[in-house]
Design goal:
With 197 residues, the protein is an alpha+beta fold. 58% of the residues lie in helices and 8% in strands. The protein has 8 helices and 4 strands; from the N terminus they run βαβαββαααααα. A 4-stranded mixed beta sheet has the order 2-1-3-4, covered by helices on one side. Strand 3 and strand 4 form a beta hairpin. Helix 1 runs parallel beside helix 3 and helix 4 runs antiparallel to helix 5. The longest helix is centred in the middle third of the chain and has 30 residues. The chain is globular and about 45 Å long. It starts with a strand and ends with a helix.
Length: 197
């Protein structure tokens, strides 16, 4: 059984949802970043962490990729053009959505107060809206980000869009609002929210 270290309101949600999609059993240890519990499992105190037997893996995207490859689901085959396009979309979402939200979080509550620049958030919101528009244009009529079915970048994007609402970035593109609503209605998404601490 897999063990996932991290809280529901963190990137650990991505890993928990992936495990639900894969139908794999897991135990969640709801540790906060930098907590003694998190450091017990990973010296840097970062979350999420996945424990698979004795192996300890960190970074949500690396964990998602490992799980998808290991179970042969929610991903295109390694070495294929489809996989390269999927990986490119995952990296794009991390660069253009996740990184902006994380920078806003750092300047809201993570960094020491004397290092925060509150005014940066307006620029980040502007850039986020531009990224939304470009992504919608590139998605076209597709219901998913990289292909005809749910894959790793969909899990990352769904999490980022929810984060954007919580961080008061909002979602400016109706297609992405509809996309988020559809993803959040998946049985696996709902089970993750219900089961996770």
């Amino acid at each position: 059984m897999y063990r996932v270290i991290g809280t529901l309101h963190s990137r650990a949600f991505r890993v928990l949802w992936m495990l639900e999609e894969l139908g794999q059993p897991y135990e969640q240890i709801a540790a906060m970043p930098q907590s003694a519990e998190a450091r017990t499992h990973y010296p840097h105190g970062k979350i999420p962490v996945l424990i698979d037997c004795e192996a300890v893996l960190s970074d949500s995207t690396a964990i998602l990729t490992y799980l998808a490859d290991k179970h042969g689901a929610l991903t295109a085959p390694p070495g294929s053009l489809e996989r390269a396009r999927q990986d490119a979309m995952t990296q794009r979402i991390l660069d253009e959505f996740d990184s902006l939200l994380w920078t806003a979080a750092k300047h809201s509550f993570v960094l020491p107060e004397e290092r925060r620049v509150a005014s940066i958030k307006d620029a980040l919101k502007w850039e986020f809206a531009r990224s939304e528009a470009a992504l919608v244009r590139d998605m076209g009529e597709s219901n998913f980000v990289a292909g005809d079915s749910l894959s790793i970048p969909d899990i990352v994007l769904t999490h980022c869009l929810g984060w954007a609402i919580t961080a008061k970035f909002g979602i400016s593109e109706p297609k992405l609002s509809d996309y988020l609503d559809r993803m959040r209605k998946r049985d696996t998404y709902l089970r993750t929210r219900e089961k996770s601490a």
